[in-house]
Amino acid sequence: MADSDRTASLMTPAKLAQIKPKGAASPAAWLSQMAADAGHVHVRRLRELREQLRAQSGLMELSPFVVASARLAQALPALDFGLLRSRGWWARATGKSRTAGAEFAAQFQRIDEVARSVEAPAQGVRKQQQERAGAADLALLEIEVEHHAIEKIIDQGSRWLQDMRNQIKSREAAGPDAAAQEQLKEDAARCEILVTRLMVLRAVSSAVQQLLQQARGAASRRAALAQKLQQALASCMRAWHTRLAELAASAGDAASPALNLEDAMEAHRELQLCVKQFLADCAQLEAQEKLAAESLAALEAQLEAA
Description:
This protein is mainly α. The protein is built from 10 helices and no strands.
């Protein structure tokens, strides 16, 4: 394969059309420029996609939901089931049963108001996910395509270098004349140009790979959080409200000495665990999104250098 063919194999058709020599441009200069520009089209497209991704996948606004959930997490332990445990004849006779039941019902009403304040921020998180998921996923898919193209160029370039260096050694061993020695120098210099270019492309490839990993991790956590908000949290909230509202309504009825506390207490524990888990999920998502943002910035630096 001729030198021009080997170097041209590193280029896309679009790039070849852009850098085809005109006029008196020498073949040697053309080949050297192609080596220096290897992967240029893909680097340029990655710059465009990076900007798209930056605009489409900003940090999810979790603060309203986190604040409301933290308030609920603080409020839930204040519900005192101990108020309903003593309902003997003395408590009924002295009216303490009714008083305790009223206090329990009042506690429930206060906490229920806090619980309801979580609904709107949770809907906001789900809406954000719906609005950004498609465009960000498409940008990541295109970035992956460009990444594969650059990886292919790196592989082709590495094989071209090995082939060229082997040829240079063979030609040197054959005792070249002055003109051939000059050609050897040009070929060796072109190899070094390509070595430098491949190092740059490897740095870009590594940065892209890191971005894909972190960005997809963040996207996965965002989708999981939105789904859990729609299903798990909503289910816990409904079960809690239904069972606790029934218990609070009957708590002041002195004629009902035996209240079914177990189901209500279980629903209460489930909601506490659910809210705690969602706060942990939000913290993990924020950390993951921070890593994705850092990867995006790191890719920008490598693309500017390329």
